[in-house]
Amino acid sequence: MIALYVIIGVVVVLLIVLWFLYNGLVRLRNQVKNAWAQIDVQLKRRHDLIPNLVETVKGYMKFERETLEAVTKARNIALQASSAGAGERAKVEGELSSALSRLLAVVERYPDLKANQNFLALQEELTSTENKISFSRQFYNDSVLRYNNQTQMVPSNIVAGMFSFKAGEFFEVTLAAEKEAPKVSFTQ
Asked: Which H helix or E strand runs over 160?
């Protein structure tokens, strides 16, 4: 009889441990999804700001059509990739960041534009959004790290395997240009 109580007690303890591990994995997986959604919010904000920035700059930059077209094209590609995974999305957004950097570098040649209040406000909004995107990416990657650690460490890796919890994908910079420090030049 005592053996039966011990067996029941062990089974109950194992079920409680399984319950806590499973719920912990679900919580971490949902945190990763939430972090990804926060990146999406900031990217949408950036995508919405770009047409206004381009229109403001167009009036001043008659001869920089190629740069403006590159930014517009990169934005459209980024919008189309909104349902892609983290790796593909990071690549496309990196290309958009690169195009925006080129645009802002070209703006340096137009003192009237740099003094325009609309442009300055848009540039400030874009800078603020880029910072928010950076923080959102960092939070997302931290969430993925915690989730991946939990799905790979004993004993939760057993539960993760039983219930098909897959490893999360980090949001990584893939473009070499984005990894390099920007070059500033005041010569024309």
From this structure: helix 156-162
pTM for this model (two decimals): 0.74
Enumerate the domain spans of the chain. Answer: 47-179
Separation CA 31–CA 29 (nearest Å): 5
- pLDDT (tens place) for every residue of the chain, 188 residues total: 899 999 999 999 999 999 999 999 999 999 999 999 999 899 999 999 888 888 888 777 665 778 888 889 999 999 898 888 888 888 888 889 888 888 888 887 777 777 788 888 888 898 899 999 999 999 999 999 999 999 999 999 999 999 999 999 998 866 555 545 444 443 44
> What CA–CA distances, in Å, run from 50 to 107, 114, 120, 124, 186?
14, 16, 13, 12, 25
Q: Which fold is adopted by the domain 47-179?
A: de novo design (two linked rop proteins) (1.20.1440)
CB-based contacts of 103, cutoff 8 Å, min separation 6: 53, 54, 57, 67, 68, 70, 71
**Helix 2-58, helix 117-152: angle, nearest 10:** 160
